[in-house]
Amino acid sequence: MEIALNRFCVNRKIAPGLDIPAFFKLVNRVGLNKVELRNDMPGGKVTDDLSHQQVRYLAEQYNIDIVTINAVYPFNQPTPAVCALTDSLLKEAQQVGAGAVVLCPLNDGTAIDDQSVVTALQTLSAMFDRYGIQGLVEPLGFPQSSLRSPALAQALIREAGVPFKLLIDTFHHALYPAAASEINSVDITMIGLVHLSGVEAPGPLETLTDDDRVMLTSGDRLDTLGQIKALESRGYKGLYAFEPFSSTLASWREADIADAIRSSIERIQQHCA
């Protein structure tokens, strides 16, 4: 069955050289209407130098739905600075009309015990509740990540008793060795978003970095298409967001980005038909 176009989303990382008006216009031009904004773009501002009202106006003009702002880091170490960041991003999400904020775990080799994660989830959930924003917990598959397992993330969300959902990333799924055996234990209804990217770079998977992440190609080593088909076969009906990180994207023209989005969607549709 073909995946409807309204289930595809574009993360702003794909177009580091475009400002928000140009990015929204590009997404609209390729026939999509969903985006993820970020707080780690050049300049460090979620909305560049635009007001929240201007972003809302542009979203309405180009029929854009802002799905998430990405991201609170490190969510599982809720220091006063992290709580302040969370409050700031939640406020921005509310003001621009974003539905969710992404939560990423500490990724520097420091271990964080499960009870601390549960406490962090409960602490942050109270903040999300005040703003009426959905929280999406994204396990990171890097060897140095403090939360690599989607199954464990699901269990800790349930233990914390919070309404957060999971963000599954096909890159991080491939980097975490146990993910393939765990994924079937993840409740499909708890997945709020799936990030997509591909990797052609050689070398052991555990040595890959964000800079290796490109769009979907015939040489993808992550089996991204297989991961999507498996999710669809289990009944996943949510969104897929393209999230390449490679520094090579900075040299892409708008036409290159549009072609890569269209080509990746075509590959997905053909594989899942």
Give the arrangement of secondary structure elements.
Blueprint (H helix, E strand, L loop, with lengths): L7 E4 L8 H10 L4 E5 L13 H10 L3 E8 L7 H17 L3 E4 L10 H18 L2 E4 L12 H11 L4 E5 H6 L3 H4 L8 E6 L1 E2 L13 E2 L9 H10 L6 E3 L11 H19 L1
Parallel strand pairs: 1-2, 1-10, 2-3, 3-4, 4-5, 5-6, 6-7, 7-10
Antiparallel strand pairs: 8-9
- Give the beta-strand count: 10
Summarize model confidence as the mean pLDDT. 96
Strand content: 15-25%
**Helix and strand element order:** EHEHEHEHEHEHHEEEHEH
Poorly predicted runs: none
Major sheet, described briefly? 8 strands, parallel, barrel
Give the CA-based shape. Answer: globular
The number of helical runs is 9
Helix proportion: 25-40%
Strand order of the largest sheet: 1-2-3-4-5-6-7-10
| SS class | alpha/beta
How far is it from the N-terminal to the C-terminal residue, by CA? Answer: 5 Å
Radius of gyration: 18 Å
How would you describe this protein?
The chain is of the alpha/beta class. It is built from 9 helices and 10 strands. The chain has helices spanning 20-29, 52-61, 80-96, 114-131, 150-160, 170-175, 179-182, 224-233, 254-272; strands at residues 8-11, 34-38, 65-72, 100-103, 134-137, 165-169, 191-196, 198-199, 213-214, 240-242. The chain has an 8-stranded parallel β-barrel with strand order 1-2-3-4-5-6-7-10. Helix 1 (20-29) links the parallel strand 1 and strand 2. Helix 3 (80-96) runs parallel beside helix 4 (114-131) and helix 4 crosses helix 5 (150-160). It is globular and about 45 Å long. The termini are close together.
Question: Summed up, what is this model?
Answer:
With 273 residues, this protein is an alpha/beta fold. The protein has helices spanning 20-29, 52-61, 80-96, 114-131, 150-160, 170-175, 179-182, 224-233, 254-272, and strands spanning 8-11, 34-38, 65-72, 100-103, 134-137, 165-169, 191-196, 198-199, 213-214, 240-242. It is globular, with a radius of gyration of 18 Å.
